[in-house]
Design a protein that fits this description.
Elements: H1 2-9, H2 20-27, H3 31-52, E1 57-66, E2 77-90, H4 94-160, H5 166-201, H6 225-244, E3 251-264, H7 268-271, E4 278-287, H8 295-361, H9 367-401
Antiparallel strand pairs: 1-2, 2-3, 3-4
Helix pairs in contact: 1-5, 2-4, 3-4, 4-5, 4-6, 4-9, 6-8, 8-9
């Protein structure tokens, strides 16, 4: 029976070679990050485009005209070239407000990129330490099964000579089967984490142990990048509202056009009538929309209410982030207590196991007590390792909610 089970637990370990810092670095090169980078560049280009409208525009052009009947005022064919300079002196503040809105949008996009990176880094860190927590569970389970198999061989010899009963052997076999199922579940969870890391890094990954996170000393709370992004988004909407209000003000612009003409008359009579072959026209333009049935006011009110909506969302998220940080700190303190508890539990489990094992070898206790002590020992070993890795995850949560870059704390 045991021979059929044993090959199932002989799962080979993989050789790992990537540390946590490298995994996080590679996760910053995935398609989602690249997509967000393009969005940031797009907003930057749009901002630069709007800034360019502060300067005069220069245009050049040419025309050619052919008429069916020549007259004194219309030559048989006419060629003209022109150059125009236009400059908006005042537009009610629309350009400035629009520029401010886009500048805030650029800042918001940049913070969103930072927030996305930090979120992905937190996910990678969680996978990394959960992976090694599972590896420690796997190692403990393998050692437990190894000891169970040794006891199985020992009891099998006793059963063969009739000094023990078959139910004692069956209990060992049952425990091995149960441990084997648990082992396969652990292995599945390990493979799931590996696949998740491959998804985040978009490449085949290997994993190297030894990475930890630096301790963080909180001197003051810093807004997370996603909260900062919302803050800039709120400013952008306020500037957009101001820009929509500019329609209530006049628009003043300057325009200067120089044109050079070439009249080609067939008739000498008309040719002599030409008195001008170039012209320069300078204009000062003023327009003021006095009445639009309240359209401008309604547009402003709509945009301002969007600003108020974002402001409420910002205050909500800001308060929530502060609470999340306090909870993360509390969870970290509890995690440290769990390590102390796990250390005490392992010490007690080792002591109990050593005592029970001696009694079991001398026939003073049955194998139920022995199996229970064995299980508690390896569960305690696994629990201590898991609690140590969980402490690193709790530390990562503090760093994340305090608005710091996780990649700067990996060592």
């Amino acid at each position: 029976m045991i021979k059929k089970i044993y090959p199932l637990i002989a799962i080979p370990f993989t050789v790992y070679a990537q540390d946590l810092s490298k995994l996080v670095e590679e996760s910053f090169q995935n398609q989602l990050i690249n997509s967000t980078k393009y969005s940031v560049e797009s907003v930057k280009n749009q901002y630069e485009s709007v800034k360019s409208t502060y300067y005069p525009t220069v245009s050049v052009g040419a025309t050619y005209t052919k008429v069916s009947e020549e007259t004194a005022s219309s030559a048989d064919n006419t060629k003209a070239g022109w150059a125009n300079i236009n400059y908006v002196v005042y537009d009610g503040g629309a350009r400035g407000a629009t520029s401010d809105a886009l500048k805030s949008s650029v800042d918001s996009a940049g913070e969103n990129l930072s927030a996305l990176k930090n979120t992905i880094a937190l996910e990678v860190i969680n996978h990394y330490f959960n992976y090694y927590s599972l590896v420690s569970q796997k190692e403990a389970k393998l050692k437990e099964i190894e000891q169970l198999n040794a006891q199985y061989k020992r009891l099998k010899r006793f059963l063969d000579v009739g000094t023990t009963t078959s139910d004692e052997v069956d209990k060992i076999v049952s425990r091995v089967q149960s441990a084997t199922v648990t082992l396969h579940e652990i292995e599945l969870n390990i493979q799931t984490i590996i696949h998740n890391l491959q998804y985040l890094t978009t490449k085949d990954i290997t994993i190297e142990s030894g990475s930890t996170l630096k301790d963080i000393v909180l001197k003051e709370e810093t807004l997370r990048a996603d909260i900062k992004a919302l803050e800039h988004e709120m400013s952008a909407m306020l500037s957009t509202a101001r820009a929509s209000k500019s329609s209530n003000y006049p628009i003043l612009s300057l325009d200067d056009t120089y044109t050079n003409y070439d009249f080609d008359y067939e008739s000498q009579v008309y040719q002599n009538s030409v008195t001008m072959d170039e012209q320069n026209v300078f204009k000062v333009n003023l327009s003021w929309k006095l009445f639009d049935f309240g359209a401008t006011t309604k547009t402003y009110e709509s945009n301002y209410k969007k600003y108020l909506s974002l402001k409420s969302q910002y205050e909500y998220e800001k308060n929530k982030a502060s609470i999340d940080l306090k909870l993360a700190i509390k969870a970290y303190e509890i995690a440290k207590l769990k390590i102390m508890s796990a250390q005490s539990a392992l010490k007690a489990a080792n002591s109990t196991y050593n005592t029970i094992e001696k009694k079991y070898q001398n026939g003073l206790v049955d194998n139920v007590a022995y199996l229970e002590a064995l299980s508690e020992k390896y569960s305690a070993i696994s629990a201590l390792k898991s609690s140590e890795y969980d402490l690193e995850i709790k530390k990562a949560n503090i760093i994340y909610h305090s608005g710091k870059k996780l990649e700067d704390y990996i060592q």
